[in-house]
Automatic annotation (TrEMBL):
<protein>
    <recommendedName>
        <fullName>Signal peptidase complex subunit 2</fullName>
    </recommendedName>
</protein>
<keyword id="KW-0256">Endoplasmic reticulum</keyword>
<feature type="transmembrane region" description="Helical">
    <location>
        <begin position="61"/>
        <end position="80"/>
    </location>
</feature>
<feature type="region of interest" description="Disordered">
    <location>
        <begin position="1"/>
        <end position="20"/>
    </location>
</feature>
<dbReference type="GO" id="GO:0045047">
    <property type="term" value="P:protein targeting to ER"/>
</dbReference>
<keyword id="KW-0812">Transmembrane</keyword>
<dbReference type="InterPro" id="IPR009582">
    <property type="entry name" value="Spc2/SPCS2"/>
</dbReference>
<feature type="transmembrane region" description="Helical">
    <location>
        <begin position="92"/>
        <end position="112"/>
    </location>
</feature>
<keyword id="KW-0472">Membrane</keyword>
<comment type="similarity">
    <text>Belongs to the SPCS2 family.</text>
</comment>
<dbReference type="Pfam" id="PF06703">
    <property type="entry name" value="SPC25"/>
</dbReference>
<dbReference type="GO" id="GO:0005787">
    <property type="term" value="C:signal peptidase complex"/>
</dbReference>
<keyword id="KW-1133">Transmembrane helix</keyword>
<comment type="function">
    <text>Component of the signal peptidase complex (SPC) which catalyzes the cleavage of N-terminal signal sequences from nascent proteins as they are translocated into the lumen of the endoplasmic reticulum. Enhances the enzymatic activity of SPC and facilitates the interactions between different components of the translocation site.</text>
</comment>
<dbReference type="GO" id="GO:0006465">
    <property type="term" value="P:signal peptide processing"/>
</dbReference>
Length: 206
């Protein structure tokens, strides 16, 4: 079989002494969110046994490289001929480059949006079951009565019979204040963040 099956996904708490210390500016919400996003990927792949999908990354790379190759190739060729000979093809190349760049931007904004993790996991529960999970993240700005928060939306599906039988499908929304995840000097609290992710995934995977 191409993928390893496990009877129960492991979710042990992390050992703090084995975690690399991550320090950020605690006032920088962008850095805080990116640190948490990286933590989501690490926890789901190393502790929950999910295999991350890179489909959207591959699409971005293909579109980006294609736009660059067309633009660069035609530009280089145009230096070998006169302007009159090259202007029509250069114009077409510019149009293609602009179109691909627009598609790339739309794909990032509309398709990828705020997704930070998409993955699958196969488990053996008397039969082969496939769990699919998708996590979106965002930052909630501070208000008068509340600190800024890290929010995740978890979409989960578990199927059997090669996806033909739906066993479970849920969607949840969870959040946690950033001050609970970073110390006053900006040290990322691995243990607290892992507990938050484990609790959020347990709510959909029951």
């Amino acid at each position: 079989m191409s993928e390893k099956l496990s009877e129960k996904p492991p979710t042990p708490p992390p050992k703090e002494e084995e975690e690399e210390e991550i320090v950020i500016n605690p006032l920088d919400l962008t850095a805080a969110k990116l640190t948490c996003d990286d933590g989501v990927k690490r926890i789901l792949t190393t502790m929950h046994g999910y295999k991350q999908s890179y489909k959207h990354t591959d699409v971005q790379l293909v579109l980006g490289w294609l736009a660059c190759l067309i633009g660069g190739g035609v530009c280089a060729w145009s230096y070998t001929v006169t302007f009159e000979e090259s202007k029509q093809l250069v114009g077409i190349a510019v149009g293609i480059y602009a179109t691909l760049s627009a598609v790339l931007w739309l794909h990032a904004k509309l398709v990828i949006a705020n997704k930070v993790f998409t993955g699958k996991r196969k488990t053996l529960q008397g039969r082969i079951e496939t769990s699919s999970i998708q996590i979106r993240s965002s930052s909630i700005n501070a208000s008068t009565n509340a600190p800024p928060k890290y929010e995740i939306q978890v979409e989960y599906r578990r199927t059997a019979n090669f996806g033909k039988s739906l066993i479970n499908a849920k969607k949840t929304l969870s959040s946690i204040p950033y001050p609970d995840l970073f110390s006053s000097r900006g040290v990322f609290q691995h243990k607290q963040f892992t507990a938050f992710i484990n609790k959020s995934t347990r709510e959909v995977d029951d």
